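seq:
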Amino acid sequence: MTKPRGFTLFEMVIAIVVLSIIMIGIGSYIAIGVKGYTNTVDRERLQSQARFLVARMTKEIRHAAPNSLNASGGCLSFYPIIAPAVYYANLPNNSSSIAISPLNYSVNWENKGNLVAVGFASFEQYQNNTIKVNGIAKPTNANEPYQLSLTSPITTASPGKRLYLYKDKISYCQQGSTIVRRVNDGDGVLMADNIDTFTPEVQSAGLNSSAIALFSIQYLDQRTQEKSDYNHSVQVMNVL
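struct:
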């Protein structure tokens, strides 16, 4: 009767080597799949972040006051409109009271902290303006205009007789590897990270078009060093 035999040392070594080769192959295959999935997730995260940032900036810039866009120091700045109106007087007329017809009346016309702009042609005019709302008188007859009281007379005029209320300056700025949103140069609120470059530009208004904000954003995946470029333009909808 033949006695049962076990594995020899040589056979065990061969088996271990074969199993190791098989496991390395399986592990490499899994690693490739995991890496591909991770890269896809990272890329989708950057794209989602880019879509959010572009949508947020587009929404705000479209409602900026005419000629209030400015690009400098890695920032895109502008003054959003709080409320618009049409005025009836021939300006300037050295009067601190003006008859207006608000396009949409709201309590913003009663806020004495709001600034008043008429026919401003530059960002600096918005920045240096000191004319504020002093009060507003509602008409007793629906066909009559509102009487807007100002802290000082308006010294400019609008071709379309447009008057705008505004207050805060909004800026989108690159800060290190992030883009932040600032109100009146205050502390920034994080809007996007993994930013390599943010290049804003402003195309001034012409006779037949409003100003256009142009910005280029380059994202950098810190793990893979892959770069993604996004170029966008936004036209200001409000007219002078």
